[in-house]
Design brief:
This protein has about 900 residues and is α+β, with helices and mostly antiparallel strands. About 20% of the residues lie in helices and about 30% in strands. The strands form ten sheets. Strands 23, 24, 28, 29, 30, 31, 34, 35, 36 and 37 form a ten-stranded mixed sheet that branches. Strands 10, 13, 16, 20, 21, 26 and 27 form a seven-stranded mixed sheet that branches. It has a seven-stranded antiparallel sheet with strand order 38-43-44-45-51-47-48.
């Protein structure tokens, strides 16, 4: 037994490293193995959990000692020890055994800390506010658009809160549990706590709100301390000024907080929010998630968040209406990257435009020096007008950030509670009302801070085709910009959680980022939003109900089906079976709702193939018959329900769903299949592709339907017409049929609408339309489906049809066009997968890395009988359909095939 040859690392609890605020009593534990040997599989494990780290050092698990468990499982392991206590921290470590006779050393010690599991765990903390909004003035759901004229501007106070408290003994650990609505920043003793942006994550506030857990031990001193909070509006209160997608009000800003101090002598103390906290207006004079933010530095109260500040002029907080609280367990939004301008230009006196070189979600940051009362107005935009100024026509105008100088030395400022999607930053200097110019005020620097969800990156890709590399970055930046505390459609005009993106772009997302914890949060949002009749709204959280356009923007099966598709994906990607169990009732309600809407098993409503390319301006589907895609999704929902029911042991349900699905399939083929032409619907790319993709085509006719898809594409000179719904299925069908050559020809060009066309027009993030039209968003990720093909097709990283969580990997690279090399890495639940190939006139070479505790089947392009070398020796292979197939275990491998 050799511990040096086997180690265990990457320990996670509830999908995260050392998470705070865990809100389940049986959290899931996962780990990864590392070994210097090949073909390594785990055969057993032992987990120790203790409530004192010192006990673990003695190998004592006083909370849970699993003993030696004979199992290969290393992901989604149920904690099975003593009942866990609210707010308590638990330490754990693990060792493993492998099939080579090795036993690892104990892993490093990691921890998780529980959240507040019951309302009483808040220890009588109160929701507090500067003032309360009268019930008659509350507006939820929000009114789509600007709302009623008589509502007016509806300004509100953006408050500060503070509370001093003493610490008399040595502190062992201190934790803050806090929710501030709409958004908050907390500081202790003058220092901001953490590096989060736009906490808490967005939810439907009349259903639930998230609290955030912070370790604040290092922020406290041994005498008098001060906790201070600043609040912004977020989606909680949207005032009636400037641009807004909707106008709404759940109430005025408010907060609730509990600070838990654990002393070294074993005693505890709680500091909770109540009427003893003091409050006053902040220097933020305007806050809108859509319209921007104003900050008047002249209103700053120096030292307001520090001990000793004179707050006698502040008023006592008032008690506010409570909200149901849940823990924020997904990774937070943060500033993830900083950009300096690549160019700047003075358009006229006191007006500059800065080009940051990249369209992104984020905020501007300025350094300025000048006269008290002068104003810096910052307008962010994706595009420019002909005169060189910021163009917000397609993204929400007017929206801007404004800073009024206090006249001190150099002043640094950036918005706290709003963001935008932009490449360009327009800076206007406006003089104080008592002056004629801004001659004494200077802009020292302007930066762009890219903000997104901070979840871990899991994938990389690059190939010899530079257009595809640019396309990868184009899509990646659209993903980055829309990965917040939900997945938005765009970072400016709407910022709504359109549901179809999650299942259509899901594979692309999971190749690039570990989205599991964020996805679990989104599924909780979906359950909270589902209507009593089973309807799942197309946007979640559903801040505004879009009943116009026959209600299709609110209720479309291709969107609502995410309630079934996304949990199924989470199970496939991460082995997360819990999400199937938790959401099963919601899934049942949804298919029953669809049944109430069908006519002889056909659904004849919905948005269908949104933004396809037809003769008219993109938007509503033009090329595919109404009902075809909706009914296809209806069928697929029932197919998945059959599988899920069987997996969960619900045999009667499984039989019901199988019969139901068969009836839909019969109705679909009767309505849409044309046997004389072997085409579906209108014969559009989407009509045929979605029928094949979802298994609606009879097997004997499948090849002919695929052939017709290819013919249609060829007749269009390899240009695409599929939109938001159809393109994903088109790529899937072509790839699975071995027609990556067609995918290559469709996308390796810039002369027709598509990815290359957008890049040729100067786009740096994926746009809303294939046309890269300036009249729509230029930062949308809904059409980014080619990203999946880069990983699964060109690089060939997939999992087998029977695999869960990439336990059984498939490496099957596609050789397409003139591409001579491709490389991708993917951090799977079991560890790093790598596929890198090169092709020359002499040979094909493939390097593969497979993580320990998983296996792989490698499909190497080779003619029947061609010799394949594996790590320099002749490999034992089976030849199937132009490939040499070899089974391998974990480790690093190099395969080569010489061209004869």
């Amino acid at each position: 037994m050799n511990a040096q040859q086997l180690s265990v690392y990457h320990l996670h609890c509830q999908q995260l490293e050392n998470p705070l605020g865990v809100d389940v009593l049986n959290p899931k534990l996962s780990w990864q193995l590392q070994s210097s040997q090949q073909n390594v599989l785990q055969t057993a494990y032992q987990v120790l959990v203790a409530d004192d780290e010192a006990l673990l050092k003695k190998n004592i698990g006083n909370v849970w000692d699993s003993k030696k468990v004979n199992s290969s499982a290393s992901i989604q392991i149920n904690y099975s020890g003593k009942v866990l206590e609210s707010a308590k921290r638990y330490f754990w470590k693990i060792k493993v055994w492998d099939n080579k006779g090795n036993v690892s050393a104990w892993s490093d010690v990691v921890f998780w800390q529980m959240g507040l599991l019951k309302q009483t765990d808040w220890k009588n903390a109160k929701w507090i506010a500067y003032e309360n909004l009268a019930d008659s003035l509350k507006i939820f759901p929000a009114e789509h658009g600007n709302g009623k004229k008589e509502w007016g501007k509806r300004p509100d106070v953006l408050p500060l809160f503070r509370k001093e408290f003493s610490v008399a003994k040595k502190i062992k650990q201190a934790t803050a549990f806090i929710c501030g609505l709409g958004q908050f920043e907390m500081s202790i003793n003058g220092k901001k706590v953490g590096d989060h942006f736009l906490d808490p994550g967005w939810t439907k506030y009349n259903k639930q709100a998230q609290y955030v857990t912070f370790d604040i031990t290092s922020y406290l001193c041994s005498t008098v301390n001060t906790v201070a909070v600043m609040l912004g509006n977020g989606f909680y209160y949207i005032p009636g000024e400037r641009y807004r997608k909707m106008t709404g009000a759940y109430g005025y800003p408010k907060l609730i907080a509990r600070i838990l101090i654990e002393y070294s002598d074993g005693t505890i103390e709680n500091i909770v929010s109540n009427q003893t906290w003091k409050t006053a207006p902040s220097p933020i004079t305007f806050s809108s998630i859509y319209g921007g933010e104003n900050y008047d530095a002249r209103l700053e109260q120096k030292g307001w968040n520090e001990t000793g500040f004179d707050d006698r002029q502040w008023k006592q907080a008032v008690i506010a209406e409570p909200h149901l609280l849940v823990s924020q367990t997904a990774a937070p939004v943060k500033v993830m990257q900083e950009f300096d301008p690549i160019s700047s230009k003075e358009l006229k006196n006191d007006l500059w435009i800065y080009d940051m070189g990249q369209n992104m979600s984020g905020i501007p940051a300025i350094k300025v020096k000048g006269r008290k009362g002068d104003t810096v107005r910052i307008t962010c935009a994706e595009l420019l007008k002909e005169d060189g100024t910021a163009n917000q026509k397609a993204t929400g105008s007017s929206s801007y950030f404004q800073y009024i100088l206090n006249g001190n030395a150099e002043e640094d400022w950036q918005p706290r509670f709003a963001y935008y999607g932009f490449r360009y930053v327009q800076v206007d200097l406006l003089p104080d009302v008592n002056n004629q110019d801004t001659a004494n005020t200077k802009i020292i620097s302007v930066k762009a801070l890219h903000t997104r969800n901070s979840t871990a990156t899991t994938g990389t890709f690059r190939c010899s085709n530079e257009l595809f590399n640019k396309t990868f970055n184009l899509i990646k930046w659209a993903i980055n910009s829309n990965m917040q505390s939900i997945f938005t459609d765009c970072p400016h005009r709407e910022r709504l959680g359109w549901q179809e993106q999650l299942h259509l772009m899901g594979n692309a997302l999971q190749y690039n980022y570990d989205i599991q914890s964020l996805a679990v949060k989104i599924m909780a949002d979906i359950r909270a939003e589902q209507n009593a009749n089973g309807l799942v709204p197309s946007t979640i959280p559903e801040y505004t109900e879009m009943h116009f356009a026959d209600g299709y923007f609110r209720d479309s099966p291709e969107w609502g089906s995410n309630v079934i598709l996304f949990p199924w994906n989470l199970y496939q990607w991460y082995g997360n079976k819990d999400e199937l169990t938790k959401n099963y009732t919601a899934m049942q309600k949804y298919v029953n709702y669809l049944h109430s809407k069908d006519s002889s098993y056909l659904l004849m409503y919905g948005l269908s193939d949104w933004y396809d390319l037809g003769p008219n301006r993109p938007g509503f589907c033009q090329l595919t018959p109404m009902g075809l895609t909706a009914t296809a999704y209806y069928y697929n929902d029932l197919v998945l329900m059959n599988k899920i029911a069987a997996m969960l042991g619900k045999t009667t349900d499984a039989v019901t769903y199988a019969k139901w699905a068969d009836k839909i399939k019969q109705a679909f083929n009767k309505a849409y299949y044309h046997p004389e032409t072997k085409q579906y619907g209108s014969g559009s790319q989407t009509s045929n592709a979605i029928a094949v993709s979802f298994g609606l085509v009879n097997e004997k006719e499948k090849a002919t339907v695929i052939e017709n898809i290819v013919k249609e594409i060829q007749q269009r000179n390899y240009s695409l017409t599929s939109g938001d719904i159809g393109f994903h299925h088109l790529l899937k069908v072509l790839y699975e049929a071995g027609r990556s050559d067609v995918i290559y020809l469709m996308n390796n060009r810039n002369d027709v609408p598509g990815y290359g066309y957008q890049i040729a027009k100067g786009a740096t993030a994926l746009t809303e339309s294939w046309l890269a039209a300036p009249i729509v968003s230029n930062n949308h990720f809904m059409l980014g489906h080619l990203m999946e093909w880069f990983y699964a097709g060109l690089a060939g990283i997939q999992q087998s049809n029977t695999s869960v969580g990439y336990k059984e990997i498939q490496i099957k690279p596609e050789l397409a066009g003139d591409i001579t090399n491709a490389k991708a890495t993917f951090q799977s639940p079991y560890g790093l997968i790598k596929s890198e190939w090169t092709k020359s006139v002499i040979a094909f070479n493939l390097q593969v890395e497979i993580p320990a505790n998983s296996t792989a089947v490698v499909h190497i392009p080779a003619k029947n009988g061609q010799t394949v070398l594996q790590n320099g020796k002749k490999a034992t292979v089976v030849y199937v359909n132009g490939r040499a197939v070899v089974k391998i275990g974990s480790g690093n491998y190099e395969f080569s095939v010489e061209n004869n």
